[in-house]
Each structure stands twice: as structure tokens, then as C-alpha cells.
Design a protein that fits this description.
alpha/beta; binds 6-O-phosphono-alpha-D-glucopyranose; 6 strands; binds magnesium ion; 12% strand
Length: 214
């Protein structure tokens, strides 16, 4: 395929914030009196804040009021914001900056496709905003992954057809969203978890455009 654009998820792909999301949700679960494991957390990756809370509450078998849910989500986000507060350019995952630089030189467009409402702040703290030709985040879309909206919006903003876009994702919901958008998907992480992806790599260290084999 001819690659015209690469669309990147943020959390767990460009930066290690997937860990912070997990720690913040686990802290909320602890405070509500139930445990929340890393394997439970796979279900939350790529899922919006409120939908994540619903899954967490289902795991804890809790049924709070709508007002309490808003309080719980705010409590989780406050702790998450504490974690990301100190992020800086060193927090970019290994090889990411080099790969984005290679894409730029090759004239391949770069888009962000994240459902996080905190995405812009993380891009700016880590100083990579300038690489992006389009930024789609949780503030401009209405459907979280696995709905394809986030990636279809990215393709539209970049003026490319879905078949010319490659998505980079660490979440099961994100791989599904990419496929539903008609795009190929490179999984970032473990092939056991991301078996649906078109290829899986552990991360971007030493990864080059020529290594994308789809
Ligand atoms: C990403 C993460 C999810 C997170 C969601 C919303 O998709 O993978 O774990 O819940 O964004 O993030 P936010 O920063 O808006 O709470
Ligand atoms: Mg992710």
C-alpha cells in the first residue's frame, strides 16, 4: 500500500501514560473497596473516561447515582493530572521522536487519534505538538473507540482516504476502531493481546517506515 498518513493513538503509544491511567483507576477502585487488576485495565484502554468508569463499576459490582459517578470520574482525573503534571520531553517513548522525524522527511502526514481530553496538554508538555498535521482528541469527537469516528475524522482532516492511512494502537478497542474505519493497524505491545492487529511491534525503538509491512 502507499502510505499517505499515519494516525497515532497517544496513551501507551507515544507516551507511557497508559500506566498513569491504570494507577489512577486502581486508586479509585481501592478507595471504593475493590481490587482492579492490570488485566481488567486492558478493557479500559482506548475507552472514554465515563465509559471506563462504567466498566470499573461493573467490575466492582457497584451501582452509584449519576452525581456520584461524576464525582468518581473527577477524582480519577484529578489524580491522573497529578501524574502527568511533571511530564517533559524525556517522557516520549523510545524511538518515537526519530520515527516521527522520518515520517516528516518522507512527506507522510501525521495525525493524532486519541479519545483523551488531556491529549493536547500531554503533547505540549512533551514538546511534540509541532509534528502533527491534525489532532483529533476527546474534545472534538462524540464516539470513543471502538467506534471509528476518531480515525475517520483524522483522515478527513488530513484529506486522505482511509485505505492510505496506517493506525498505531496499543488498545484492543483502538485496533477494532482502525479496522472499522477501513484502515490497517500496527499494534504496539504484545501480540498475545493485540492478535487482531495487522502487525505488532513492541515499540518504536529502531523502527523505520520500511519496516511497516501490511
Ligand atoms: C485514552 C486512554 C483511556 C482513557 C481515555 C480518556 O483512550 O487509552 O485509558 O480513559 O483516553 O482519557 P481522559 O484523559 O479524557 O480521561
Ligand atoms: Mg492507548
Amino acid at each position: 500500500m502507499t502510505i499517505k498518513a499515519c494516525l497515532f493513538d497517544l496513551d501507551g503509544v507515544l507516551v507511557d501514560t497508559a500506566r498513569y491511567h491504570y494507577l489512577a483507576w486502581r486508586n479509585l477502585a481501592d478507595s471504593l473497596g475493590f481490587s482492579f487488576t492490570e488485566s481488567d485495565n486492558e478493557r479500559l484502554k482506548g475507552v472514554s473516561r465515563m465509559a471506563s468508569l462504567e466498566i470499573l463499576l461493573e467490575i466492582g459490582k457497584m451501582n452509584p447515582s449519576e452525581n456520584e459517578k461524576i464525582t468518581f470520574a473527577a477524582q480519577k482525573n484529578a489524580l491522573y493530572l497529578e501524574y502527568i503534571e511533571k511530564m517533559n520531553p524525556d517522557d516520549i517513548l523510545p524511538g518515537v521522536r526519530e520515527f516521527l522525524t522520518e515520517l516528516k522527511k518522507a512527506g507522510i502526514l501525521i495525525g493524532l487519534g486519541s479519545v483523551s481530553k488531556n491529549a493536547q496538554s500531554i503533547l505540549s508538555k512533551t514538546d511534540i505538538t509541532g509534528f502533527f498535521d491534525a489532532i483529533v482528541d476527546g474534545n472534538i469527537i462524540s464516539q470513543a473507540k471502538p467506534d471509528p469516528e476518531v480515525f475517520l475524522t483524522g483522515a478527513k482532516m488530513l484529506n486522505t482516504n482511509p485505505e492510505q492511512c496506517v493506525v498505531f494502537e496499543d488498545a484492543l478497542a483502538g485496533v477494532e476502531a482502525a479496522h472499522r474505519a477501513g484502515m490497517k493497524c500496527v499494534g504496539i505491545g504484545s501480540p498475545d493481546i493485540l492478535s487482531e492487529a495487522d502487525m505488532v511491534i513492541p515499540g518504536f525503538e529502531n523502527f523505520k517506515v520500511k519496516d511497516i509491512v501490511l
